[in-house]
């Protein structure tokens, strides 16, 4: 029940590239369908919040969503088993709720400044299977990858590799450590 409540709070903060982020989304949200409307649950999340979950761009769509009937008890799923994105408020909500997840910093040694989002482990896209399995115990586990920021490809590369290996609940935090720190959130220093 606790997880269902937590998920209900953050479902509007999750998005997928296939979801419609209608309105004036910037290209940094990594979608190709920003000018169309889709009726998936992620499209509805956009309609409900009125803002792009990745960039915060405002939609031109109405921001009210229909109330579910009393007979319905919506239980949102965390993410569909395909590509996904999460924004800073969504990641913060997961961390504060102590959601069972693996948070992975995908930066290579060259770009790693030693700062981590609290609870994150370092794992690059070229890590061995043994190293991946050391950090991720189940293929159904929620995994969030991040790197330096919006222009860094490392978190997407790691996400893509994990999906190819059969991990089902992989989402990317494209804002990265830069977006996390710019939002004023705390960081940890990696142990050497």
From TrEMBL:
Keywords recorded for this protein, A-Z: Signal, Transferase
UniProt key word Transmembrane helix: no
Keyword Ion transport appears in the UniProt entry: no
Gene Ontology molecular function terms on file: transferase activity
Any Pfam family: Rhodanese
Position of the signal peptide: 1-22
InterPro entries linked: Rhodanese-like_dom, Rhodanese-like_dom_sf
Name the record gives this protein: Putative rhodanese-like protein (Thiosulfate sulfurtransferase family)
Taxonomy, superkingdom: Bacteria
Listed PROSITE patterns: PROKAR_LIPOPROTEIN (PS51257), RHODANESE_3 (PS50206)
The Rhodanese domain, residue ranges: 97-189
